Amino acid sequence: MLKTLENGLNKVETFIVCLGLMVLIFTVFAAAVLRFFGIDMSMSTDLAQLVFAWVSFIGADLAMRKDKHMGVDMLIEKFPLPVINAIYLFNYILILGFLVFAVRYGINLCIVNSARKYQTLYISYSYATASCPVGCGLMCISAVKHIVQYVKNIMNHDYTSIMKKEEEPAL
């Protein structure tokens, strides 16, 4: 049941990010082409800003869920697996603390920005700032999932889930 829910959320987030990137690319490209012909498309900046905020936060959650965030692990890969697991657990606890902080203050930011309007879109700026608490809330779920996995690793003394998978070379 939980795996089905996660797969569904994965598909929805992937769809939103892909759609957002298409809108972002089309809007910026169209604005550049139209500007060349002397046609002003001033709403493209506001729309690009709104879409970019959502794509960034939702995309960050996708990367976090799949454990694809950039990281430097040259030092920790020298440690034994139980120590690496403890370091990852500590990191995700810190990340979760920051994300809870970001959700809390992101909600306040949405409330403060509710009266502020985009100049060309005529909608509240809080639609853009809502991407922070929503995205960070989704990342909280992903962080808790990772924390649970690392705690299970400690309890079962099984660290195979953190062993590096050899990636196939790109063709």
Can you offer a commentary on this structure?
The chain is mostly helical. The chain has one domain (2-162). 70% of the residues lie in helices and 0% in strands. It is built from 5 helices and no strands. The chain has helices at 2-36, 43-65, 81-112, 126-129, 131-156. Helix 2 (43-65) packs parallel to helix 5 (131-156). It is elongated, with a radius of gyration of 20 Å. The protein starts with a helix and ends in a 15-residue tail after the last helix. Residues 165-171 have low confidence and may be disordered.
Secondary-structure element order, as H and E?
A: HHHHH
**Secondary-structure class:** mainly alpha
DSSP strand content: under 5%
Global geometry: elongated
The total count of strands amounts to: 0
Count of all domains: 1
Which spans have pLDDT < 50 for at least 5 consecutive residues? 165-171
User: Span from first to last CA?
Assistant: 37 Å
Mean residue pLDDT: 90
Q: What is the number of helices?
A: 5
> Major beta sheet, specifics?
none
Radius of gyration: 20 Å
Question: What's the helical proportion of residues?
Answer: over 70%
Oligomer state of the chains in this structure = single chain
